[in-house]
Write a structure and sequence with these properties.
The chain is α/β, with parallel strands linked by helices. It folds into two domains: about 290 residues, Alpha/Beta hydrolase fold, catalytic domain (Rossmann fold, 3-Layer(aba) Sandwich), CATH 3.40.50.1820; about 90 residues, no CATH class. It contains 16 helices and 13 strands. Strand 1 and strand 2 form a beta hairpin. The protein is globular and about 60 Å long. GO terms for molecular function: serine-type carboxypeptidase activity. Keywords: Carboxypeptidase, Disulfide bond, Glycoprotein, Hydrolase, Protease, Signal. InterPro entries: AB_hydrolase_fold, Peptidase_S10, Ser_caboxypep_his_AS. This is Serine carboxypeptidase-like enzyme.
Length: about 450
């Protein structure tokens, strides 16, 4: 992490507003990168000067002939503590993926920067290359702190990239971003109410979002039973003995011994599957990055792929130099896909707090809100999401229908007054990973504010 003179220079670069993109953050000579027409920027921006916290971002211009007029979007991966660069950019929607050797990049056919300018932010501190120089911060994580830092990042980012201040701006994410995104959206609206440094927020889109444990956890139990993964007796014991409103994914945190017993049986019965897509086998690699052990927060494990190639690539000194990363002494910045400490120390009461009151407020603000769900996810199931949407008691605008991609059923959808819900057929917890074409189509329709076409027999 930067110290001394390097830290002073970093602050100065952050607070000096320019009339164009910060040239010091331009990514040049990225090792193994195929030739592209768009520019990219990366580096640290200070989010809290007194605590010396700085967040790392990677910005990709839209791969589009009208790049400057395309929307701008911020992607936040969940966890808490999983990298938006590793999971979001390289794993799902960015313009590049890491090849099998871990040394070269390949173009992604269905990259979302074909439709928008994309920022990937590593948040909160301790995630990826983001850091704090206050050691005690590494044991302090909560939704309020994360949202405040994320807002400060955006304000600093727009000071460095003022040419994007008028572009339509959207928030994107999945999993525990079900907390990050609504809390940040509210922070942005509160900031805009002051009349200064207005962020042109138009809406947000979330996939398989952890939202309300009472709905999310009971929905998972219904999902397991409806897919014949657990017997009726175990299902009944879970329903009768578990207070789902106090539980973490999957079925963790209960103090009721009968609930604990039924939860243990459930986890044993589904252990031969990937919890994140029940039609896939779990990773069998024994490394700390790839094993699918049951953590205290299963949302972290969603970002443990079956290989370590992204970690290998981002830990190369030449790559880090291209990403404008300052090093301390002769050591490089150590990058991991997920910071387990962020999950371990994240405020427990925040993980189980309901986001529904925030949704009710945000819907009143007339934001475009799209919620999508891979229907094979066993961590935040489609039944979970449908349950909490029902509790919002919204007026239906478009009846339930099958939406299509390339003349095939891609999922189902229903539009409400203030929110649009879509499922993605055969996708798991990370929709763009499992169904990249359908995910890009969904994103493009979201930006246009138009539901995808219905399937015609």
């Amino acid at each position: 992490m930067p110290t001394g003179l390097t830290w002073i220079v970093l602050i100065l670069l952050t607070i000096v507003a320019s009339q164009a993109a910060n040239p010091s953050h331009l990514v040049r000579n990225l090792p193994g990168q195929p030739q592209v027409q768009f520019k990219q920027y990366a580096g640290h921006l200070v989010v809290n000067a007194s605590a010396q916290r700085a967040y790392f971002y990677w910005f990709f211009e839209a791969d589009h002939q009208n790049q400057t007029s395309q929307p701008l979007a911020l992607w936040l991966s969940g966890g808490p503590g999983c990298s938006s660069v590793g999971a979001g950019a390289f794993g799902e929607i960015g313009p590049f993926s890491v090849d099998i050797s871990g040394t070269k990049l390949e173009k992604r056919r269905n990259a979302w920067n074909k439709a928008a300018n994309l920022i990937f932010l590593e948040s909160p501190h301790g995630t990826g290359f983001s850091y704090t120089n206050i050691t005690s911060d590494y044991t302090i994580y909560n939704d309020e702190m994360t949202a405040s830092d994320n807002l400060q990042f955006l304000l600093e980012w727009f000071r460095n990239f003022p040419e994007y201040s008028k572009n339509e701006f959207y928030l994107l994410g999945e999993s525990y971003s079900g907390h990050y995104i609504p809390t940040l959206a509210m922070k942005i609206l509160e900031n805009n109410a002051n009349g200064k440094n207005i962020i042109n927020l138009k809406g947000f889109s979330l996939g398989n979002a952890w939202t309300d444990p009472a709905h999310d956890m009971r929905g998972d139990v219904e999902f397991y039973y409806s897919h014949s993964l657990i017997p009726e007796q175990t299902y009944n014991e879970l329903i009768q003995n578990c207070d789902f409103s106090t539980m973490r994914p999957i079925l963790g945190g209960s103090m009721n011994p009968n609930c604990q017993g039924a939860s243990a049986i459930t986890n044993r019965l589904i252990s031969g599957l990937s919890h994140y897509n029940i039609y896939k086998p779990p990773c069998k690699n024994g490394s700390s990055i790839t094993s699918q052990s049951l953590h205290t927060n299963m949302l972290v494990n969603a970002y443990n792929p079956c290989d370590d190639k992204t970690e290998s690539y981002l830990n190369q000194r030449s790559v880090q130099a291209s990403l404008n990363l300052a090093s301390s002494g002769n050591s490089t910045n150590s990058w991991k896909l997920c910071n387990s400490k962020a999950s371990e120390y994240y405020q427990a009461s925040d993980i189980i707090v309901s986001m529904l009151p925030l949704y009710k407020s945000l819907i009143q603000k007339k934001l475009r809100i799209w919620i999508y769900s891979g229907d094979a996810d066993g961590v935040v199931s489609t039944l979970s999401t449908r349950s909490w949407i029902k509790e919002l008691n919204l007026t239906s605008q478009t009846p339930w229908f099958a939406w299509s991609h390339k003349d095939k059923v891609a999922g189902w959808s229903q539009a409400y007054n203030g929110l649009t819900f879509l499922t993605v057929l055969g996708a798991g917890h990370m929709v763009p990973l499992d169904k990249p074409q359908q995910a890009l189509s969904l994103f493009e329709h979201f930006l246009k504010g138009k539901v995808p076409p219905s399937f015609a027999n």
